[in-house]
Amino acid sequence: MKNMNILLIVMLIGITSGCGPSQSNIPKELIGKDCTIQFNRASLGSSDLVGPTMDVVNGNSISISGNIVKIDSDWIVAKYERKLLYIPMKSILLIERQK
């Protein structure tokens, strides 16, 4: 089982398949926090056998770790390796907040 010291795991899957979450589903407390963003496995073409907190599958990264800069209804903006990444909500499986 994953480390029980994880402060917050936020599920960002819409109720309807293929639907991204709305802004109201995402806590504003994530802005400015270091988080790991796990990408929706279906949008990556991965099987359902890939665990929700796995970071690498077949040598390919399926998550990023960075600082959340902005959240709106369609995008999360994260600072990752000195770049700003605009990540569409519908491609996000979950966000795991770092300690």
Give a brief description.
This protein has 99 residues and is mainly beta. It has a single domain, classed as SH3 type barrels, CATH 2.30.30. 4% of the residues lie in helices and 41% in strands.
Description:
There is one protein chain. The chain has one domain (8-97): SH3 type barrels. It has one helix at residues 41-44; strands at residues 8-11, 34-39, 56-57, 60-61, 63-71, 75-80, 83-88, 92-97. It has 99 residues and is mainly beta. The strands form 2 sheets. The chain has a 6-stranded antiparallel β-sheet with strand order 1-8-2-5-6-7. A two-stranded antiparallel ribbon has the order 3-4. A hairpin with a 2-residue loop joins strand 3 and strand 4 (60-61). The model is unreliable at 1-24 (pLDDT under 50). It is 4% helix and 41% strand. The radius of gyration is 13 Å and the shape is globular.
Q: Architecture, CATH level 2?
A: Roll
Biggest sheet descriptor: 6 strands, antiparallel
Strand elements, count: 8
Can you tell me the CATH topology?
SH3 type barrels
In which order are the strands of the major sheet placed? Answer: 1-8-2-5-6-7
Low-confidence stretches: 1-24
State the main characteristics:
99 residues, mainly beta, SH3 type barrels, six-stranded antiparallel sheet, 1 helix, 8 strands, globular
Which SSEs are present, and which pair or pack?
Layout (H helix, E strand, L loop, with lengths): L7 E4 L22 E6 L1 H4 L11 E2 L2 E2 L1 E9 L3 E6 L2 E6 L3 E6 L2
